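ok posting inputs for the manganese (II) ion job
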Amino acid sequence: MVAKALEVRPLTETFGAEVLGVTLSGEISPDTLAEIKALWLRYGVLLFRGQAMTKDDQVGFSRLIGPLEIHIRAEWLNDTHPELLQITNIRKDGKAIGALADGEVGWHFDQIYLPKPAIGSLLYSIKIPPVGGGTHFADMTTAYARLPQHLRQIVDGRNAIQSYVAFNTMYSTDANATQTTMTPDIAHPLVRTHPYSGRRALYICPGMTVKICGLPDDESRAVLDELFAWQARDEFVYRHDWALGDGLLWDNACTMHRRDDFDGAHERLMYRTTILPQPDRAIPF
Ligand code: OGA
Ligand code: MN
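and the output
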């Protein structure tokens, strides 16, 4: 019997898709999993609405996509499930119990500042404010493919410095001394080749990219500003307005994201798993 293909609704002309009729809790058949993986690779962002995942479900499903990263910010991890990074403005004793607590968050790739950056994230909404707090995604495969020639000549074959310290300085979320030692500034190619698809995507973001290697400071600044403006053009962007029970699985190698402001009087709580590439390319994805 031929397995029934999942129903898919593209979210933009180039990337992003809503996947219908899939329950991410409990058992997932091998056929369905293979299809989800193929769709994730093809579309870069997958939306699954109306989910009712337990913490175990979210961790279990995410693990089917790849090994999970335990985020270094131990203070923001879920008590019982450290694979879940809490993204929330909820506070305990005056301290945020999650990452990205308040308001707007600028464009970034999760963990671009690590030597082996994440390949995916699954963000699941538990509590959302009545308005605001939408999450925007930008298609960096298309942004690279359409890059003007003069910029392409600069980015191809060059590295840029990524800085977790810069990100934390921007949001006043400084890591402790040990965590900071674990995350020194690091160079990555400005163009990331996807480990599974081989497709090339722009791999820089205003939140963490501080310098293009091999260029004088002023030239680096000018080119970065031009690239930041380019990569955030409307033609590359999908904006997601959250509903309760939405799960968004994105590809961190070829999409970046940012968050809109929201009223801090309302609680917002999401759980995020962070998915690593398979350690061994010999293992088929
Ligand atoms: C994240 C993130 C944005 C949001 O979880 O990595 O950037 O909408 N979240 O909270
Ligand atoms: Mn993020």
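notes: Residues 7-279 form a domain with the Double-stranded beta-helix fold (CATH 3.60.130.10). The chain has a mean pLDDT of 95.
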